[in-house]
TrEMBL record:
GO terms for molecular function: acyltransferase activity, transferring groups other than amino-acyl groups; serine-type carboxypeptidase activity. Gene3D superfamilies: alpha/beta hydrolase (3.40.50.1820). This is Carboxypeptidase. One of its GO terms (biological process) is secondary metabolic process. The lineage of its organism: Eukaryota, Viridiplantae, Streptophyta, Embryophyta, Tracheophyta.
Length: 388
C-alpha cells in the first residue's frame, strides 16, 4: 500500500514538472575552452516569469569564492537593447575571460578561456540574469511573450527573484543587492523598490535587501545624452571654443533637438568628433561596434525551433587589437553545441545566440524617468552606489 502511494506521488510530481516546464538547475563543472574543472561553483537554470506565454529567464549563479554563506548576493543585469548578461560574466566582473589571441575557427575548437583572479565573485555571490525576455538565452514559447517593456520586465525580475530565493532558501539571510549598468540602470531602482514593498507588506520569501548599485546608468532624462558635452570637453575631445559655443547657443535645450542654426551647426560638429572615437572608452582604438543582430523583424528565429547548427548572423572578424574582438569570440563560443549542452540550454529554445537584440523584438519604453525610484528607495535608508 505504501509502495503504491509512493509511486502515485512520484507520478504526480513528474507530471507537475513536465506541465509546469520547470527544470532542475544545471551544475556546470567544465566549459569548452577552459582547461580542467572550473575553480568555482557555477549553477545555471531557467525561471518561468510569465506562465501564460511560457516566458523563461536564464541565469548563471556563481557562488562567492570567499564565504558564500556570509558574503552578499548580487543580482546583476546588463544594458541593452536586450544584451546578454554573458557580456558581464565574460567581459567585466566574472571569474572567466577570453584569451585574446587570433582564433582560426578550426573545426572542433572554441575560443580559449582563462581564470580571472579579480572577479567580483571573490567577495560576493553573483546572480547574472538574461533579461528582458529575449536577451541571451532567455526565451518565450509564444511570440507575445517577447512583447514586454520597462515596467513589465522589472516586475518579471521581481517574480524571478521570488521564485529563485524560494528554491535557494540558504541565501535568504545573506545581504542582497540589485545591480546593473547602462540601460539596466532603469530597471535596478524599480526592482529594488518592489522588493522593499514586499518586505514592508510581510510577503515571503523575505529578501534581505540592503541596497543597489548602478554603473553609468540611463535615467530616461535629457541629462543622459546632454552630459556627453561637458564630459568630452573635460577629457579634451572637443575644444574650449566648441564647448562655449554649445553652452551659449543651445540654452539648456536637449542637444538632440537644437532650436537655432548656430546650436544645430555646433552639435553637428560635436557629433562628427564623437564619431572619431570609441565612445565607450576614449583611449581604445576606434573599431566597428560588433553586436550581430537578426536582420528580420520577427521573433520567428527565437521561438522553440530545432537548431540547425548554421549561424545566420556571424559578425565580421575584427582585428585582434580591437576591443570588439571579444564580442566575436563570445559569438563563436556561445553558439557552440558543446557550450550549450554544458550550460544546460534547453534544446530548441532558440536558434542563435547574439550579444544584443537591437530593435528586432518589441519593447515598450514606459518609464519616463527612473529618478523618482532612486529617491523612493534611498529615502527608505537603503544604500546606493552610482558610478561611472
Amino acid at each position: 500500500m505504501e509502495a503504491q502511494l509512493l509511486s502515485r506521488l512520484l507520478f504526480l510530481l513528474l507530471g507537475f514538472i513536465i506541465v509546469s516546464g520547470e527544470a532542475a538547475p544545471t551544475l556546470v563543472t567544465s566549459l569548452p575552452g577552459f582547461d580542467g574543472a572550473l575553480p568555482f561553483h557555477l549553477e545555471t537554470g531557467y525561471v518561468t516569469v510569465d506562465e501564460e506565454h511560457g516566458s523563461e529567464l536564464f541565469y548563471y549563479f556563481i557562488e562567492s569564492e570567499g564565504d558564500p554563506r556570509r558574503d552578499p548576493v548580487l543580482l546583476w543585469l546588463t544594458g541593452g537593447d536586450r544584451c546578454s548578461v554573458l557580456s558581464a560574466l565574460l567581459f567585466e566582473m566574472g571569474p572567466l575571460r577570453f584569451v585574446i589571441e587570433p582564433y582560426d575557427g578550426a573545426a572542433g575548437t572554441v575560443p580559449r578561456l582563462h581564470y580571472h583572479p579579480y572577479s567580483w565573485t571573490k567577495a560576493a555571490s553573483v546572480l547574472f540574469v538574461d533579461s528582458p525576455v529575449g536577451a541571451g538565452f532567455s526565451f518565450s514559447r509564444h511570440p507575445r511573450g517577447y512583447d514586454v517593456g520597462e515596467v513589465s520586465s522589472s516586475l518579471q525580475l521581481k517574480t524571478f527573484l521570488t521564485k529563485w530565493f524560494t528554491e535557494h532558501p540558504d541565501f535568504l539571510s545573506n545581504h542582497f543587492y540589485v545591480g546593473g549598468d547602462s540601460y539596466a540602470g532603469k530597471y535596478v531602482p524599480i526592482v529594488a523598490q518592489k522588493i522593499s514593498e514586499d518586505i514592508e507588506a510581510g510577503l515571503k520569501p523575505t529578501i534581505n535587501l540592503k541596497g543597489y548599485l548602478v554603473g553609468n546608468p540611463i535615467t530616461g532624462e535629457a541629462i543622459d545624452m546632454d552630459s556627453r558635452v561637458p564630459y568630452l570637453h573635460g577629457v579634451g575631445v572637443i575644444s574650449d571654443q566648441l564647448y562655449e559655443t554649445i553652452m551659449e547657443n543651445c540654452h539648456g535645450e536637449p542637444y538632440d533637438n537644437p532650436k537655432n542654426v548656430i546650436c544645430a551647426q555646433a552639435m553637428d560638429r560635436f557629433k562628427a568628433l564623437l564619431e572619431e572615437i570609441y565612445d565607450s572608452q576614449i583611449l581604445y582604438k576606434k573599431c566597428n561596434y560588433l553586436s550581430p543582430t537578426p536582420n528580420d523583424k520577427t521573433t520567428h528565429g527565437r521561438i522553440l525551433q530545432q537548431e540547425t547548427g548554421a549561424l545566420k548572423h556571424p559578425p565580421p572578424r575584427p582585428q585582434v587589437d580591437c576591443h570588439g574582438y571579444i564580442t566575436y569570440l563570445a559569438y563563436v563560443w556561445a553558439n557552440n553545441n558543446i557550450t550549450r549542452e554544458n550550460l544546460g540550454i534547453k534544446e530548441g529554445s532558440m536558434g542563435e545566440w547574439v550579444r544584443c537584440h537591437e530593435k528586432d523584438l518589441p519593447f515598450t519604453h514606459d518609464i519616463e524617468s527612473s529618478i523618482k525610484y532612486h529617491r523612493n528607495i534611498t529615502s527608505k535608508g537603503y544604500r546606493a552606489l552610482v558610478y561611472r
